[in-house]
Amino acid sequence: MDGRLQVFAGNGNRKLAEDIMATLEAPLGRAIVDCWRNGETRVKLDENVRGSDVFIIQALADPVNHHLVELLIMIDAVRRSSAARITAVIPYFAYAKQEKKTGGREPISAKLVANLLVTAGVDRVLTLDLHAPAIEGFFDIPVDHLRATPLLASAFRRMAVEDIVAVSPDAGGVGRAEDFRVRSGGSLAIISKKRPSPDEAEVIEMVGDVAGKTAVIVDDMISTGGTLVQAADMLIERGAARVYAAAVHGIFAGNAAELIAKSSIEKVIVTDTLPLHTAAQNGSIEILTVAPLLAEAITRIHKDLSISALFH
Ligand code: R5P
Asked: Are 149 and 126 in contact (CB under 8 A)?
């Protein structure tokens, strides 16, 4: 590794950060990232970063606000220590579902998070499967937005699943499901969903033929699990032979893992952008690692090589 590249990590997903470094065959930068007794975040870099190309890995995992502040303060520390360039590596970008107002008197929290990162001093962002790609435009700095769909589709190709129908559980996810379909083969179905209240999903209708097929619900994230479970019920009702789910970010909020375990979904595959919620550690959820993908992206950014090559 080039001597000027340095990588630090917050506590959002240490395991992923260590796996990235194992791929890069280099140690994580030494730093104190913890709390003072009064609950405030404490950061101290234990390495000289002057003139370095610094990457800070931080998944915005639960507790989201704490990990966001850790990231902001780490960026501040690195900036004040005269790094040449700072890239925030954010495998899971929280607040992304609040990227627009859905009613009066609401914030656009994703834009505020983008503003906070830039104000803290970040020069570029590397992230994976933003809930809404338009969030890239909330930044006036480079954003490298990777997709994990190729990884998810290759898992299904390895399983040799036949007669797949890739299912988007809502209109916003059609592009992702179509990308999955192109890579895994098969057909496409689209579900129309509404949210009667926050964190509640209601499936309305579906377009596409799923009878006798293996339906794979493709989504960016599993939060409460409501979207998946409702979609699976409709798929079974319309005659799907079996239902699988493939999602990038496994949040598994509240009793999501329990709901999914009780549903007709046979298998769930997620990536390790987030640490696996303890309730979801029951062996029925398969985890694919994004560590090599992020390691490759870090190397390419550092060496000024193309990132688009990673999308094929
Ligand atoms: C759309 O809103 C997203 O792409 C996901 O479908 C959604 O965030 C999943 O959330 P939940 O598991 O809470 O239904």
From this structure: no
Q: Determine the 3-state secondary structure of 112 from DSSP.
A: helix
Among 227, 230, 259, say which to mutate for ligand 1: greatest number of ligand atoms within 8 Å of CB: 227
CA atoms lying within 13 Å on the CB side of residue 290: 34
* Catalytic option among 193, 262, 267, 303: 193
Residue that is written with structure tokens 């990884």 in the block: 151
Tokens 């379909």 belong to residue: 181
CA–CA dist 260, 152 (Å, integer): 19
pTM equals: 0.96
Q: Which helix (H) or strand (E) holds 227?
A: helix 226-237
Provide the H-helix boundaries in 25-142: 64-80, 109-120
141 CA to centre of own chain: 20
Query: How does DSSP classify residue 139?
Result: -
| Tokens matching residue 312 | 């094929």
> Exposed, middle or buried by CB within 10 Å (0-12, 13-18, 19+), for 193?
buried
CA proximity to 13, closest of 2, 3, 35, 28:
28
pLDDT tens-digit readout, 107-165: 999 999 999 999 999 999 999 999 999 999 999 999 999 999 999 999 999 999 899 99
Tokens encoding 110? 């994703």
For residue 113, CA distances in Å to 17, 42, 119, 143 come to 22, 20, 10, 14
Q: Which atom of ligand 1 is nearest to the CA of 173?
A: 4
Is ligand 1 within 6 A of the CB of residue 99?
A: no
Peptide linkage before 63 cis (omega within 30 of 0)? yes
Which domains are present in the chain? 5-148+291-311 (3.40.50.2020), 149-288 (3.40.50.2020)
Residue 55 burial (10 A CB sphere; 0-12, 13-18, 19+):
buried
Please provide the DSSP assignment of 200-224 as one string.
Answer: --EEEEEES--TTSEEEEEEEEESS
